[in-house]
Design brief:
mainly alpha
Length: 67
């Protein structure tokens, strides 16, 4: 089986699944950032790590084109 055999529905998230922070209301976002729930803590930890790696990748990309 390859990608051509898969239907578009298999690549579409289920209804109600949050796929980006922009889908949250202001209240939901503030709750996520201030909650002591383990899932919220994990989200913040992974988001911080992702932000760090994204910044590193931008630095490396700029170094590549400068040098």
């Amino acid at each position: 089986m390859n990608e051509k055999d898969l239907s578009l529905d298999e690549f579409t998230p289920a209804p109600g699944v949050i796929t980006s922070l922009s889908q949250l209301t202001r209240e939901q976002f503030l709750e996520l950032m201030s909650s002591s729930h383990p899932a919220a803590k994990n989200f913040r930890k992974y988001h911080k790590r992702e932000f760090h790696y994204r910044n590193l990748s931008y630095q490396v990309l700029n170094e590549f084109f400068k040098g």
